[in-house]
Structures are given as structure tokens and as C-alpha cells.
Amino acid sequence: MIRTQQSSRSTVPDWVKWTVLGCIVIGLILTIAAYWFYTDIMEDKQEGYGASKQIAVEETALIDIDSIQRYNGNEALHIVSGATESGEHGYAFISKKNKQLVTYVKKEELADAASLEKAWQENCDKCEWIDIKLGLEDDRTVWEMTYIDEQGRYVIAHYDAESGERYQQFAFRRS
């Protein structure tokens, strides 16, 4: 009589166990590496935010900081937005390279971003809106609008932040 090993449904071959274990280990290593890369990249993006916040508080009337954004125009800037003691909102433009205040603008002196966006939507109904943010070009405060136009081009349009008039525009063909 030939004896065979009795099998059960819960018996799994060794190669399956090692394959699953290997996949789990590789997945864990990839997850840790992705997290490490992400945190490293985010630290680079937010580098200098603390110093810019301090400069804005010391050199302007801002006391309550709402947010800090990066702007990469002719010069890399941190735009610190916040409120003064009297509740007026303003923006401090801090040079990332020189770590000094470039200019300070009160929000009430600027054209309303929502109004500019609404006017844009009325004139470009087949376009795809992306974003609007404050910037500084050639010592002029600008609203930078980004969108995809009706021809499928990626467009960066700068509008004078005080008057709302178009200042300059760049359109890039997407491939």
C-alpha cells in the first residue's frame, strides 16, 4: 500500500508563503521610501516659511498670519497673507533668496480675485479653469490666472492686481 500525505484545505505550499511574504516586505519598503521622498520634497517646498512669517510680522502691520504661498516669477517669493490688529487683511511679499520684505499690499487696494475669475468665465466659456494666485512681476502686483484655453493650450495670464487689466500672457501648447 502506498501512503500519501494527507492534505487539508489549509495546507499552502512553501513557495506561496515565501512569495506572499516577499511581496509584503517589498510593499512595506516601497511605502516607507515613498513617505520619505514625500516628506523630503514637502520640506524643500516649505523651506523658509518660518523666517518669512517672522519677517512679515516684524516689518509690516500683520499680526495674525493666515497662510504662506510660494510664487516663482522673476524672483522666488513667499507671499504671507494675514490680518492687522484692526482686522485689515494684507499681503507681504518676502524674497526667498534675500530673506527681506519686497513690498506690502493691503487687500482693499487690490482687484477682487473672484470678480476677475467671473469676468474670465464669461469671456472664455469653453476654457478649463485651473487656479488664480497673487504674484509680483517687474515690481507690479499681479493676479496670475492659469487655465486651459479652447485650443487646448496651457495659459498663464497676469492681470494687474490693482486695476484688473491684463498685463501679460503666456500660452503653451500641450503635447
Automatic annotation (TrEMBL):
Organism: Thalassobacillus cyri
Keyword Transmembrane helix: yes
Residue intervals of the Cell wall elongation regulator TseB-like domain: 52-94
Protein's name in the database: Uncharacterized protein YpmB
Keywords of this entry: Membrane, Transmembrane, Transmembrane helix
Pfam families: TseB (PF17881)
Segments passing through the bilayer: 15-38
